[in-house]
Design brief:
The chain is of the alpha/beta class. The chain has helices spanning 2-5, 17-27, 48-56, 75-83, 97-105, and strands at 32-35, 37-39, 45-47, 66-70, 88-91. The strands form 2 sheets. Strands 1-4-5 form a 3-stranded parallel beta sheet, with helices on both faces. Strand 2 and strand 3 (45-47) form a beta hairpin. The relative contact order is 0.19.
């Protein structure tokens, strides 16, 4: 969606937690989009919350905004993501190119 929203965005994808953390460190992006549920290198599922903790650490405010996304929209999940430092929590079924562009720009 970001690529559709604006040609200004450079988008990189990572297949798992370790690759995502390495990309975030090496590229120093303006923003990170993070799914709540991720596949680990071993194929097991990993919580995006754990990756969020690693991305943000103790830095408040965070070094870069992290927007969490999921098909799961329970208010408790949204609150948990924001309490750990996510700038926003977006419901995947409701994301459009315009809404994602707006979230990144905020």
């Amino acid at each position: 969606y970001l690529e559709q929203a604006s040609p200004d965005y450079e988008v990189h994808e990572a297949p798992d937690r370790a690759a995502g953390l390495a990309l975030a460190e090496s590229l120093n992006p303006d923003c990170v989009l993070l799914d709540l549920r991720l596949k680990e290198e071993s194929g097991r599922e990993q919580s995006g919350y754990a990756v969020l903790r690693e991305l943000i650490g103790e830095k408040r405010p965070p070094k870069r905004p992290v927007i969490m996304m999921s098909v799961l929209t329970w208010p408790g999940l949204q609150h948990g993501a924001k309490s750990l430092g996510a700038s926003q929590y977006l419901a995947k079924g409701k994301i459009t190119a315009a809404s994602l562009d707006q979230a990144v720009r905020e």
